[in-house]
Write a structure and sequence with these properties.
heterodimer; A: about 280 residues; mainly alpha; about 0% strand; B: about 290 residues; MetI-like fold; two-stranded antiparallel sheet; 13 helices; 2 strands; globular; membrane (chain A)
Chain lengths: ~280, ~290
């Protein structure tokens, strides 16, 4: 029994090593000096540490700050839009005898059934007319449309789970529906709200196809789009592998960071919302 | 009387912004797509009604079938790997102990990384002259010359991309399987231990049957995700060689955007959406039963 325990432990640690190797390789490669980063065959470990690759990324085309701003701005707007739309909607669905509620819920979850990849062509045409292409707001709208069903589903379950007594006490005190929302429901549903914001952030920060289609000006590219473009064209003639690794490292840090910080919320969201 | 305050119309008011948003940004594009698919249309010329021509044209388009067949092949190979692999990982780590918890966290970490970014990472790892995969295989003496993994041979590209996607998403199934295994009531497990069941018997007679619904659900989610594959192929092969590795979504993208055949692109999107719909309906029926 004991021997088996050690065996499981060893297998687990080997698995961890295999899973972490690509990430570690990328981070280490991003820290190689320029010449070593372009070496073929590659070296396993950097001979010297340097921030050259980050320096080149900082100045690449429009400059890293522009791309970071676009990615972060879109992600923040996506969180904002998603919460502004789904918190009230979840409240309405979970707590009011809305006429035709079942049908409305199905309509709201429609985006679950229709893959957004298929809707991008008509959306692009519509956005071109509305001036929403090459706009962070426009891309955030696409991301909100993708994220809305999952968010609504998670929040509605959370609103429905708030004990009736709490709401009734507020009503007895003469609270309006807006006041009950603010005083009773928002505090009671904080974990679900955090989950929804977390998923919205990660999805928007990572999303590729929508950003590729909606953003044609390089000054509006998000981080994954500019890196994908940089994989074939760079200042050095061939692919600038060191700079690419720097970009990959910078893209990965926020996602892994918020995931490790808020792991509990992430896993609970995954479990409750496995519909997505 | 106490329900008087909670009027249905007030509820509808709370719902209306989300409802309006879905009508404008999901329902309207859907209707528009259906309409577009019945027209011949590039951005330069006005749309012209052609009935179902775009659909019959797809049926006779060699690339449509190449893309569809390739996407299907990718899906059929990757899904069993993800499900069996994810389940084995879940069996290994389901019990809560520090080292298993750590393993779950580590195996899950690539799931939160973007598919685009992880594809770029593996584009580098599989690069012929600069990548670690060839470097390691050469140093171990497994291969004599660097292998061209991506963009030259469709099957070899497919395998390399599958390896990268397995690394990225295998933790997703694992976490859901762990959740299902941990939800098995402990008295069921204890009873089987009292009866002297071996580990293997417990897995095949108790754990697997009691988590079957989750297995089906994750299988459907994997199939849907794989049928919609785009980022990894766009980044790692750009569809090469000769669009042999251009997936269905890639084919829609090529027609709609670089080629601007909007009507044809819309018809292809409709076919894609209907294929996915069939799988999603099954998935929703499955999830519904778990949340009565």
């Amino acid at each position: 029994m004991r021997r088996r325990g050690y065996l499981v432990g060893a297998v687990c640690l080997a698995l961890c090593a295999v899973m972490l190797m690509p990430l570690l390789a990328s981070v280490l490669a991003s820290l190689k000096p320029t010449a070593e980063a372009a070496a073929s065959p590659p070296t396993y470990l950097p001979g010297a540490l340097s921030l050259d690759s980050y320096q080149r990324l900082w100045e690449y085309q429009q400059g890293l700050p522009v791309y970071l701003f676009n990615s972060l701005g879109t992600a923040m707007l996506t969180i904002l839009f998603t919460l502004l739309l789904t918190v009230p909607a979840a409240y309405g669905l979970a707590r009011f005898p809305v006429p035709g509620k079942e049908l409305l819920f199905v309509v709201l979850l429609l985006a679950l059934i229709v893959p957004y990849q298929a809707l991008l062509t008509p959306m692009f045409l519509m956005f071109a007319k509305l001036g929403l292409t090459n706009s962070l707001i426009g891309l955030a709208v696409v991301h909100t449309a993708i994220q809305l069903p999952f968010s609504l589903y998670v929040l509605r379950n959370s609103f429905a789970a708030v004990p009736r007594e709490l709401e009734e006490a507020a009503i007895m005190d003469g609270a309006s529906s807006v006041q009950s929302l603010r005083r009773v429901f928002l505090p009671a549903t904080v974990p679900a709200t955090v989950t929804v914001a977390l998923f919205a952030f990660i999805m928007s920060w990572n999303e590729f196809l929508g950003a590729l289609v909606m953003m044609s000006k390089s000054s509006k590219f998000t981080l994954p789009v500019v890196l994908a473009a940089a994989r074939t064209e760079t200042s050095l003639g061939g692919t600038d592998w060191g700079m690419l690794q720097a970009g990959i490292t910078i893209s990965i840090i926020p996602c892994v960071g918020v995931y490790l910080l808020l792991q509990r919320y992430y896993v609970s969201g995954l479990m409750s919302g496995a519909v997505k | 009387m106490r329900r008087g305050r909670r009027n249905g119309w007030v509820g509808l008011a709370y719902l209306s912004p989300a409802l309006l948003f879905v009508l404008i940004f999901t329902v309207y594009p859907l209707v528009r797509m259906a309409w577009m698919s019945l027209h011949n249309w590039s951005l330069l010329t006005p749309p012209r009604w052609v009935g179902f021509d775009n659909y019959t044209r797809a049926a006779g388009d060699r690339q449509f079938w190449v893309s569809f067949g390739f996407t299907l092949k990718y899906t059929l190979i990757i899904t069993p790997v993800l499900i069996v692999g994810g389940y084995l990982l879940a069996l290994l780590t389901a019990h809560n102990s520090p080292v298993r918890r750590l393993t779950r966290t580590v195996v899950f970490t690539p799931v939160v990384i973007g598919l685009g970014v992880s594809s770029l990472l593996w584009y580098w790892l599989f690069s012929t002259d600069f990548g670690f995969v060839n470097k390691v295989l050469l140093d171990l003496g497994v291969i004599g010359d660097p292998v061209v993994w991506l963009g030259v041979d469709a099957d070899r590209s497919n395998l390399a991309i599958i390896a990268s996607v397995v690394w990225k998403v295998i933790g997703f199934g694992m976490v859901l399987f762990v959740g299902a295994i941990q939800a098995i009531p402990s008295d069921v497990t204890e009873a089987s231990l009292v009866d002297g069941a071996s580990y293997r018997q417990r897995v095949t007679r108790i754990i697997l049957p009691l988590t079957l619904r989750t297995v089906l659900l994750v299988t459907l989610l994997s199939v849907i995700g794989s049928l919609l594959a785009f980022d990894q192929f766009y980044i790692m092969t750009a569809g090469q060689p000769q669009n042999e590795t251009a997936t269905s979504v890639f084919f829609v993208y090529l027609n709609s955007f670089p080629y601007l055949k909007l009507g044809y692109g819309a018809a292809l999107s409709m076919v894609l959406a209907l294929t996915i719909l069939a799988f999603t309906v099954v998935q929703l029926l499955l999830t519904r039963r778990s949340h009565p």
